[in-house]
Amino acid sequence: xxxxxxxxxxxxxxxxxxxxxxxxxxxxxxxxxxxxxxxxxxxxxxxxxxxxxxxxxxxxxxxxxxxxxxxxxxxxxxxxxxxxxxxxxxxxxxxxxxxxxxxxxxxxxxxxxxxxxxxxxxxxxxxxxxxxxxxxxxxxxxxxxxxxxxxxxxxxxxxxxxxxxxxxxxxxxxxxxxxxxxxxxxxxxxxxxxxxxxxxxxxxxxxxxxxxxxxxxxxxxxxxxxxxxxxxxxxxxxxxxxxxxxxxxxxxxxxxxxxxxxxxxxxxxxxxxxxxxxxxxxxxxxxxxxxxxxxxxxxxxxxxxxxxxxxxxxxxxxxxxxxxxxxxxxxxxxxxxxxxxxxxxxxxxxxxxxxxxxxxxxxxxxxxx
Amino acid sequence: xxxxxxxxxxxxxxxxxxxxxxxxxxxxxxxxxxxxxxxxxxxxxxxxxxxxxxxxxxxxxxxxxxxxxxxxxxxxxxxxxxxxxxxxxxxxxxxxxxxxxxxxxxxxxxxxxxxxxxxxxxxxxxxxxxxxxxxxxxxxxxxxxxxxxxxxxxxxxxxxxxxxxxxxxxxxxxxxxxxxxxxxxxxxxxxxxxxxxxxxxxxxxxxxxxxxxxxxxxxxxxxxxxxxxxxxxxxxxxxxxxxxxxxxxxxxxxxxxxxxxxxxxxxxxxxxxxxxxxxxxxxxxxxxxxxxxxxxxxxxxxxxxxxxxxxxxxxxxxxxxxxxxxxxxxxxxxxxxxxxxxxxxxxxxxxxxxxxxxxxxxxxxxxxxxx
Amino acid sequence: xxxxxxxxxxxxxxxxxxxxxxxxxxxxxxxxxxxxxxxxxxxxxxxxxxxxxxxxxxxxxxxxxxxxxxxxxxxxxxxxxxxxxxxxxxxxxxxxxxxxxxxxxxxxxxxxxxxxxxxxxxxx
Lengths: 369, 371, 124
Prior knowledge:
The structure holds 3 protein chains of 3 kinds. In chain B, 49% of the residues lie in helices and 13% in strands. Chain B has helices at 51-55, 60-70, 75-90, 96-125, 130-150, 172-195, 198-204, 212-217, 223-226, 234-237, 258-282, 335-341, 343-347, 352-362, 366-370, and strands spanning 11-15, 27-33, 36-43, 159-160, 163-164, 302-310, 313-321, 329-333. In chain B, helix 3 runs antiparallel to helix 4, helix 4 runs antiparallel to helix 5 and helix 11 (258-282) runs parallel beside helix 14. Chain B is globular and about 75 Å long. By secondary structure, chain C is mainly α. Chain C has a domain at 62-124. Chain C contains 5 helices and no strands. In chain C, helix 3 packs antiparallel against helix 5. The termini of chain C are far apart. The relative contact order of chain C is 0.05.
């Protein structure tokens, strides 16, 4: 495999990042194609078929079309925030690639505080969303941007807390170290609740269904991006799929054992890459599956779910993890506590469903009316 | 200075006429305070084509086509009201076979219309197309079947004053059985995709509530009224065709919320299948057009109001004749128009996403609202 | 090489990535500028209002319910930052640090419960 000579750290990382550019472009196009194809299969449609064999060139055609499209800025828009918003959305998404562990050796730079870095950088893009929404001078965009801000900052917390659960077990924030510890037991078995937390919050952070509230097609018609066209709009799109890829790799790294589980470090680099790709594809497929299956939540329900359910439970999980780890109690208790909290979550959801089912209008008929 | 509050303003959010979820060209201007709706101003008329006035310039047979174009999702139901009104004026008896076939087609059209509703409602709730495409598959099968009978996928113009335009194909019964069994599966699919989904329930339950009294006051009818617990179905209350001889349940809701309006329709689809099965058992052979029905009809002077239970509710035709071969005045009482009036009551106090779901649950067809 | 310099060199790729990402967007916009057609038309520069002429500017003081969430977020995010260094070293630090941190988390939970009870988390 490619292993750059560490002659000069500057040249080394420059080359690596340039190859990341290629990887990102190809994978984003691939993901768009796959999403269309997979969603089409769920819908019993064919999806793209005309461009190239089995429609494989559809994304290329789309990209060319988008470059050739007129880039319109509304006359009443705030020029600076409108023009700068794509940068603020795209650059953080791209910067996250720096510390993503594709294999043990293959990554740009394994930062010691990698996890913290990713979480910090990922929240910057919310600024871009708000800039886009506010700058467009459009009501849908404004509402969408405010929703994005509320949702983005709220779900940052469960995300951070679930990462903390893993960091406590791994005693490290370095992603490679976290992966290396999962050779025998992946974290998803130890912390299913943290996995649920992370998966849910990642969906919310990426604004994907069922949390695509800021861009809700049937309500705010595309949200903050409603005024964007052509290449500027495609930057948001690219950032979205980049974030999808990164979040999926992150889920794989944190919970599914990354390149390590179940074979450990003995595996060659190419096999490790294959393992990462396979697991990532699985997670991405899961995300697509969720998207075609569930309705969109409402913003107040979403916030309630975050603040009244997820965050308290996450804090309890951190407390329990600390208790188990600091007193060196048996490891299986981690799994037990996590499953218990999952049970609590299911109970809470069931309870709220029962509350919904309470009939509050007495059945009336024609005579009484 | 210290207790001076930051002043916020209500903003006006314009939804429609070009909006993905206003079911055509309906327009509503929402006053929102943050996410909460404080007022709503509906605007209709973007699809106004003057159908009533146009009917006055055409003879009775040409008017049938206009009924198709007002209520374009339940065309057979609209045609039925119209031809029944003309028949009442002429005082002609429709052959038994024609009536049974009419009933079958009307109920199948109810199915196809409700399939459209359920699919579009799924999209309103924010599912990425899955229920939409599943229900459209079923609707497509029904529409293919209608095409086999009438020769057109949408504008059937198949009913005639006095009967039907021509007899149904020979394989009619077996084809009806086919579409019924596929529709049954389709309803089950909808149950699986939407009815039991927790997010769907939390989006629809206790949203857009209207109680029975308010619903009657606004003149609501059809499933939207029955969802509020009012057991009123014209097929039962004032039976026409052979609904008297048929055994079916009038489905009512309890809460009058969005979920009830959805669920009543879903259950009604099962009832429709049941009705069609019974009609098939009763289907007789014989003439399909009354002898008295001439090509160029000339009605005696008089006026008549006929109403039938269309998928969206009461579809009434008020027809005034002065003895000519065309209506002197035709008034369409469309269910969508009356049901839409209750929108304001339901929407105020809810959130922006709710407005979309509530509008979807009323199931309007702009063709019949604007006419 | 002292440790600070080492740490900074570790973050060199981050800087490079930011610069490259900036130029990616920039070059894409330039490319579009060269390829795409442009025409000046007044109607086109209107904002999208579902086909209607915009009623008035959208940039008003819109009432939002998110303000409390923002404050709570700041509190909890800072707290999470406090937990991070503890989380990676608490086993080595022993039970004492765990007890301190549990008190900290407990206080936060009480804070959340207080905000909840005061209605900061409700929408109406």
